[in-house]
Amino acid sequence: MMTNDLPPPRNWPTWLHYAIATMDTRSLFLENISGEHWPGRDVQRDEMEAAASAELERLQAAHSVERSELR
């Protein structure tokens, strides 16, 4: 039986934190060698990881603002 309330793995605050920290950048990097995702850009794996982490931080900040506005 599938459930939507499965907690994240131990030591991870959310599934999103876990997914970003463990995301596969290798295949995306290899696909981009031909310019499939970012034409004309030599995007490195650490740049992908940094972008994903920054997006999570922006989501957390926006969520924090939304929560404070509800008070």
Can you characterise this structure?
The chain has one domain. The chain starts with 14 loop residues before the first helix and ends with a helix. The chain has three helices and no strands. The mean pLDDT is 88. It has helices at 15-21, 26-32, 45-70. The chain is mainly alpha-helical and 71 residues long. Helix content is 56%, strand content 0%. Helix 1 packs antiparallel against helix 3. It is extended, with a radius of gyration of 16 Å.
Describe this protein with a few key phrases:
71 residues; single chain; mainly alpha; 0% strand
Topology summary:
Blueprint: H1 15-21, H2 26-32, H3 45-70
Helix pairs in contact: 1-3
Number of helices: 3
Give the CA-based shape: extended
Please report the distance between the alpha carbons of the first and last residues: 37 Å
Overall mean confidence score, pLDDT: 88
Helix content, binned percent: 55-70%
Number of strands: 0
| Share in β-strands | under 5%
Low-confidence stretches: none
Helix and strand pattern: HHH
Task: Summarize the main sheet.
Answer: none
* Overall radius of gyration: 16 Å
How many individual domains? 1
User: Which structural class is indicated by helix and strand composition?
Assistant: mainly alpha
